[in-house]
Amino acid sequence: MSQPEYIAALLSIIVGLALTDLAQSFRELVRPRRKVNWHWLPLIWAANTFFLAIQIWWNSFALLTEATSKFFFPFLFTFLLLYLACAFALPDPGWGKSQPGGGAPGSKVSIETLGTEPSLDLKAFHFSKAHRRWFFGILIGFLLTAQVGTQVARALAEGFSASRVEMLLNGGAAALLGTLGLTDRWWVHAPLSVLSFLLLGRSTVLIVLGG
Fold first, then answer.
1. CA 65 to chain centre
2. How many CB atoms lie within 10 A of CB 136?
3. Residue 174 near residue 143, CB atoms below 8 Å
4. What's the confidence (pLDDT) of residue 49?
5. Cβ burial 146-171 (10 Å sphere, 16+ → b, else e)
């Protein structure tokens, strides 16, 4: 195997683990006898991380055609942050045991007792300060490292300079994610989450179907 093939194989494994973690988290939510107080916002962001994983995996192979060791760390950090974003998108089964007050304005207690099975409150999970800052902070880091990795790849392989359009788009997206990480206002989260879902869903379909 060539060096680009080794790098592509490792990154594909990380993406596979990220999607597996996301699927396992969703499985825990729908597991029989699991009591869940459902809310659509965490599910939208789980779908967004799924779209991001598909997009970056699909696009990375073209950029890694002429990859050398100089590509390794920018792409590795990008894919590791992607894995963490998928891991934090949905709550673990034991989430909330140390957060009796939840975090969502006007929400109920984040965890209740039903026999020995905990009840997960997805609204409290999404709006909790710890989740917002970690999840959206990781997504910001992902955008920044992805931008660096893409520009390094293009500069080394094709001699392109930094794309100002991509930098502006990623910078704007990072600003919006930072806003979501800092506020727990529903009227801020709802439109931005729906908009990101529509844009990411559309771009993912176009990228995959477009080859």
1. 25
2. 21
3. yes
4. 96
5. bbbbbbbbbeebeeeeeeeeeeeebe
Six-digit token string for 131: 């989740």
pLDDT at position 1 is: 66
Q: Which helix or strand (DSSP H or E) is residue 182 part of?
A: helix 164-182
189 with 45: CB under 8 angstroms?
A: no
22: tokens are 């996301």
| C-alpha of 151 from chain center | 21
In eight-state DSSP terms, residue 121 is: E
Radius of gyration of the chain from its Cα atoms, rounded to whole angstroms: 19
Distances (CA, A) of 188 to 112, 179, 183, 193: 28, 8, 8, 9
Q: Residue 115 above 50 pLDDT? A: no
> Are 143 and 173 contacting, i.e. CB atoms less than 8 angstroms apart?
yes
